[in-house]
Amino acid sequence: MSLGIVIQARMGSTRLPGKVLRPIAGRPLLEHVIGRLALSRHEAGVVAATSTLAQDDAIQAWCQAAGVQCFRGDEADVLDRYLRCAEAFGFTRIVRLTADNPFTDIAELDRLIDFQASANLDYAHSFGMMPIGVGAEIFTLNALRRSHVEGLQPHHREHVNEYMLEHPEIFRSAVLDIPAEKRAPELRLTVDTEDDWTRANALAASAGRGWLGTEEAMALCSRSA
Predict the structure, then answer these.
(1) CATH topology for 3-224?
(2) What are phi and psi of 139, to 5 degrees?
(3) Which of 39, 32, 37 shows the shortest CA–CA distance to 207?
(4) Which residues pair with 4 in a beta bridge?
(5) What Cα–Cα distance (Å) separates residue 134 from each residue in 77, 82, 123?
């Protein structure tokens, strides 16, 4: 099975416009998201999936300069964008990440990828226990295709995973169990507001050129609270 990591990215955030290319600790947010993936023990194709809007030309330009694959599709129909991206690159298992989450827990991502494969799941995720923004989800191409055909409500098209989550009777789904020491569901490590950016910038700066782990980030946030 061909594994792909598709990173949803756009410049048009309402609360923090242009955030995906805004620097934290001197590097664009998107660079942090992609750079962490080098820590994974899984071989996977990595693609930034953005829209065809002119404002997202900047994302494509950054990807070209950085040597990162870029796919462009519908801005509003993200489900369609993901399906077309997966088919274009020949992915049969797709990890979905978003470009506003610079602290994805790669150890748990690796465990999630193994978990989905070993249990032969259509969909699996690691949300709800770790800090907001460090979890991930994975689904099969067949699950994505069925969602595309049957998930016709606006929220299905916007959020990619909604149809899978709403229909456990159709899709074999499960949640990855997370170690107790990484559980802090109230902590925000995503970047959606100016306060989030300030926190992320401070955390990334503390790591220097390295990559901050979930437990380290939790400890730093606890000390600064």
Answers:
(1) Spore Coat Polysaccharide Biosynthesis Protein SpsA; Chain A (3.90.550)
(2) -145, 165
(3) 32
(4) 45, 94
(5) 24, 20, 18
- Percent residues over pLDDT 70 in the chain: 99
Predicted pLDDT of residue 205: 94
Question: pLDDT digit string (tens) for 97-134?
Answer: 999 999 999 999 999 999 999 999 999 999 999 999 99
What is the per-residue pLDDT for 179? 97
Residue extents of the structural domains in the chain:
3-224
pLDDT of residue 14: 84
What's the CA angle centered on 21, arms 53 and 77, to 5 degrees?
A: 35
Whether 210 has a pLDDT exceeding 90, the answer reads no
Report residue 71 CA to chain centroid gap: 15
> Which of 139, 142, 141, 161 lies closest to 151 in space, CA to CA?
161
Q: Name the token pair of 175.
A: 């949640």
Confidence check: pLDDT of 1 > 70? no
Residue 100 φ/ψ, nearest 5 degrees: -105, 15
Distance (Å, whole) CA 154 – CA 146: 16
Which structure tokens are listed for 69?
Answer: 């694959």
Strand-pair category, 137-140 with 123-125? antiparallel
Q: Count of residues for the chain?
A: 225
CA distance 11 to 21: 8
